[in-house]
Amino acid sequence: MPVNIPNNKFTGGELKREQHIAGRTELLATPFSTFERNVRDQMNRTLGAGGFDAARDIAGIAVNRWPHGYAPEYNSLIDPDEGLPLATARERRGAIAIANADSGGGAYTDIAIDQAHRAVTELLSEVLV
Ligand SMILES: Cc1cc2nc3c(=O)[nH]c(=O)nc-3n(C[C@H](O)[C@H](O)[C@H](O)COP(=O)(O)OP(=O)(O)OC[C@H]3O[C@@H](n4cnc5c(N)ncnc54)[C@H](O)[C@@H]3O)c2cc1C
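Above are the sequence and the flavin-adenine dinucleotide SMILES. Below is the predicted complex in structure-token form.
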């Protein structure tokens, strides 16, 4: 049975973007041996009373070092209105227009659809005229 163990970094008191950087740094700097030890320890403590034994019952551990699973979102209270990386990243390059949720700054399907509409409209109005 596969078990998925995500990890969210909360350092407290810092801006969200700073917490993302701290989490990403820790994720990339942590050796596999630490992940393995922590997973075995956590699962033994959680499931041990029910008979689980990490040494016997874990067949393998894979660590996916994805620093995020969602498109990054911005906070209008603290992030600037202009100059955000997504504005640069979605600039059209010749006949290539950039869609996807990342280019809209939101981790939702409607954002991806809106950005796809924008990208196609850019091509229709600026390239395919
Ligand atoms: C666990 C989870 C739950 C979610 N729940 C919701 C929800 O309830 N409601 C909601 O609105 N949103 C939800 N989302 C977010 C939503 O799925 C994304 O915002 C949306 O799918 C983003 O669309 P996209 O087109 O930008 O990227 P994607 O859907 O990731 O599409 C990118 C595509 O590009 C392909 N690709 C990548 N590299 C290459 C390459 N080199 N060549 C060719 N193809 C490539 C990939 O295979 C993929 O098919 C969820 C996301 C996750 C991860």
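The CA atoms of residues 71 and 102 lie 5 Å apart.
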